[in-house]
Amino acid sequence: MTLGPPILQVKAAQLTEAPRAFEPKLRWPSLDSGYAPVDLHRFPSRDEENWRFGLGEFGTSSQYFISALNSAQIRIWLVDCFLLKLIDANKANFMQTFYQAFLHTTADDVRLLTSKKDGYLDQIKGFRDLQNTRRGPLHNRAAFKIEVRVIPGVRGGARLPHDRFALIDDELWHWGANVGGTHHEVNAFSHGWSALETGAVDYFDRIWNMSERPS
Fold first, then answer.
1. Would you say 27 and 188 are in contact if contact means Cβ atoms under 8 Å apart?
2. Closest to 188 (Cα-Cα) out of 175, 198, 201
3. φ, ψ at 174 (rounded to 5°)
4. What is the pLDDT of residues 179-214, one digit of tens each?
5. What are the distances in angstroms from CA 15 to CA 3, 18, 75, 90, 198?
6. How far apart are CA 70 and CA 46, in angstroms?
7. Average pLDDT over residues 69-98
8. Read out DSSP for 114-126?
């Protein structure tokens, strides 16, 4: 004989995040009159264009992008044929420009997909050292991984895209020139696109799986 009401099996509530409302925006990485980096919501004026051009490649970068790297929680995936090309040995490069952002991001899955250009091996070594630093006692992020892969040509069937892209968490960024806004000519980038709805995650996975680990 059972006493009391029957015990009902209640399923635990499934916690789900509200879907993010993406809002695409277009920006032009530039400089203001004090030579401070600024992401314009319009084409640069003639003066702004000249200020930016005068500093050369890697003379500045997108502040929106740096902020996104710093606040990333899950992944940072970048694809850019010229990502690690060394323009001038005496000037900055991609790794130096964004080193601090990669050093402090919460995202543990960092993948850089590029091609074999001058100076890329030295930067790969720098990223490996950065990974060791993140995993060390000072930062204690054992899960952190930053990996660079290359696509050397079209013979294997994989091709790098003409445009450049960044996937930061679930947001897709599209770049008219260098990822990060480091090019000195007038260029623009857009962000605020869903990386899932646009198929960017599947696309990146496909070409990543056909890429090579640099020797």
1. yes
2. 175
3. -120, 130
4. 999 999 999 999 999 999 999 999 999 999 999 998
5. 34, 10, 21, 51, 25
6. 31
7. 89
8. E---TTHHHHHHH
Angle formed by the axes of helices 63-71 and 94-104, nearest 10°: 40
What is the average per-residue pLDDT within 75-95?
87
- The Cα–Cα gap between 185 and 177 comes to 9
Domain-wise residue ranges, the chain: 25-209
Question: What pLDDT does 2 receive?
Answer: 45
Q: For the domain 25-209, what is the CATH code? A: 3.30.870.10
Report the alpha-carbon distance of residue 27 to residue 19 in Å, rounded. Answer: 24
Burial string for 27-46 (b: 16+ CB within 10 Å, else e) reads bbbbbeeeeebbbbeeebee
**Alpha-helical runs (H) found in the chain:** 46-55, 63-71, 94-104, 120-135, 200-209
Which is more confident, 121 or 189?
189
* Residues 6 or more apart in contact with residue 164 via CB below 8 angstroms: 78, 79, 80, 81, 82, 83, 174, 175, 176, 177, 178, 179
Are 201 and 85 within 8 A, CB to CB? Answer: no
Beta bridge pairs of residue 40 = 28
Predicted TM-score (pTM) of the model is 0.86
> Looking at residues 102-121, what average pLDDT do you find?
92
Strand partners, 102: none
Which of 52, 57, 25, 53 shows the shortest CA–CA distance to 37? 52
